[in-house]
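CATEGORY: protein folding

GOAL: derive structure tokens
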Amino acid sequence: MMPDLSRVTFIEKKTGGYSTKYRVRDGSGNQWVVKIGNEAQSDTVASRLLWAIGYPAEISYLVPRVTIEGKGSFENARFEARPKEIDRTSIWSWDNNPFIGTKEFQGLKVMMLLLNNWDIKDDNNKILVAQNKETGATELQYMVSDLGGTLGKTGNFISRTRNKPADFQKAKFIEKVEGDIVRFYYSGKRGDLFRNITVEQARWVGELLSRLSEQQIRDGFRSGNYKPEELEVLTRTLIERIDELKNLGDQQVKSKS
């Protein structure tokens, strides 16, 4: 499912959140939520990276330029699908969900740290009801739906950034290992969630990500329409972070100089 840009018409403005969002209808009659502004690129790419290692993710595309009838023309607009056959039911909680204690849930936390997602809150999580195309059975898909606060640096209200490749490159990732627990550099919301990630759990995510080739990682960032120099910075930084995860337990973790 890709947006048909032959004609895009405005339906309504969505409320809430940092970015301006419009619900629209494309040339084929499909509906999308278009995010305008600084979060559009990071949101698109972060969703692709989660999907690449098996986590449910929104169907999203970054459109370099689009005209929305009734609203005007915009650059780097994120289109997020709203398929008729999928129901969006409610949010899920980081503190109360069916996956607590599993390596997959711990791995999701590692992905939030990997991407420097400082905007950890339940309102950004969604439960979708979809039909499994292979079995025909109905299934619930738990996902982090809003990932715009990624690919910058974590911090407080003043210092944190979103979608700034240079900040993402400079930010430190793994601080140290204490016993079997990995300590990460993180100063965003809900830091308490990241205090019990083990070496085995973090390495598991690194191994999943290491199955992606450098070209696949670069293509993931290319989906965000980044400039060539930004594309290179993001690709190299992510590969370095993946290596840090893979090497946990093999050698003493060293901070970036």
